[in-house]
Amino acid sequence: MPSTPSDSLPLKTTRIRVRRKQARPAELLDAALDLFVEKGYAATKVETVAARAGVSKGTLFLYFPSKADLFNAVVRENIGIRFRQWNQEFEAFQGSTADMLRYCYHSWWEHVGATKASGITKLMLCEAGNFPEIALFYQREVSEPGHALIRRILQRGIDSGEFRSVDLDYAVHAVVSPLMFLTLSQHASLACVPGSLTVSPPLYLENQINMLLHGLLQPEAGPGILKSQA
């Protein structure tokens, strides 16, 4: 049987590199997070994000129609998504509210503070005034759920008799403020922390939670001092 031209040629197997479709958004979000933290929102260009992710700008726009949509997805995937898990843990937590608050601090550090996502907070503080649309999104996805969760924790402590009754609107800020300081100290240490001080995040968080739970006053001195200031 005569051979055909195709029979006489060596068999060549062409391997086409196929990227999983679902992998592309994740790669774009990783690249975007890096660039937003490095450069800020205004200075980050979508073409630079696409190039770092190894795709074209057109491919990026297939998944994220605008830079604001891309940034919002970065916020949601790196911070906003955590609140569902944390609220579920709140419902299942069996320990004291003091232990819950301590866990809250250390869980935030593990999943946000010690990661690149902590740079988003600094970005928002610096640029939110110039980009109100992303500021509103951040408020809905991060600030409001975060404050609501802390209120639930503090209210749990009040209801159980562990904590004294406090103004929750202000108490929430007392809980959040140390986390904000720690975030800023990582990304703008020269402005936030004296050069002679090295902040150890675990020790800092433990010190702050103890300050929140116990205050500065000696237990026996507290009532007298407070009464004299009334």
Provide an overview of this structure.
- This protein has 230 residues and is mainly α.
- It has two domains: 23-74, Homeodomain-like (Arc Repressor Mutant, subunit A), CATH 1.10.10; 79-216, Tetracycline Repressor, domain 2, CATH 1.10.357.
- The chain is 70% helix and 0% strand.
- The chain is built from 13 helices and no strands.
- The longest helix is centred in the middle third of the chain and has 29 residues, at 132-160.
- It starts with a helix and ends with a helix.
- Pfam families: TetR_C_11 (PF16859), TetR_N (PF00440).
Overall CATH architecture of the largest domain: Orthogonal Bundle
Order of helices and strands: HHHHHHHHHHHHH
Low-confidence stretches: 8-23, 222-230
Largest sheet: none
CA distance, first residue to last residue: 110 Å
Q: Using the coordinates above, name the CATH class of the largest domain.
A: Mainly Alpha
Question: What count of domains describes the coordinates?
Answer: 2
**Got a strand count?**
0
CATH topology of the largest domain: Tetracycline Repressor, domain 2
Count, helices: 13
Tell me the radius of gyration. 25 Å
DNA-binding region: 45-64
Protein name: TetR/AcrR family transcriptional regulator
Keywords: DNA-binding, Transcription, Transcription regulation
Domain HTH tetR-type: 22-82
Quick overview of this protein structure:
InterPro entries: Homeodomain-like_sf, HTH-type_TetR-like_transc_reg, HTH_TetR, Tet_transcr_reg_TetR-rel_C_sf, TetR_C. This protein has 230 residues and is mainly alpha-helical.
